[in-house]
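Quick question: who can interpret this fold?

. . .
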Amino acid sequence: MSDLFTKDLGWKLASVALAVVIWVTVFQYRRGTVEAGPTRENTYGDLPVVVFSAAADARAYHIAPDTVSVKVRGSDDVMNVLQGSQIRPFVDLTGIESAKDFRLPVNVSLPKGVTLVDVDPPWIGVLAPRH
């Protein structure tokens, strides 16, 4: 039984050390401390919010506010060519059954290589149509 632990002890220790190195690398990468290069944050204000609803939904919802400010992060190469028109904030009303006023989170569609940092305001008030 003692041979189970001592046999190939060098390989076992090397395997544990390699596993620790891989774990630390992945953990730090996921936390954002390992970066591929210099990054920059930009804020784009007064971006119009698009309302997605089912095609069969003839109700005319109104949203307030209808514009948001979006802060994004990306590499210098990406941020140098990024334009506000490539950032698309939206609210999704598909499947909404409520006839009352409510709030929905703002979603943002971004180009590849761009990360969302913040949306202001993060929620949009949806005003149901009045009959």
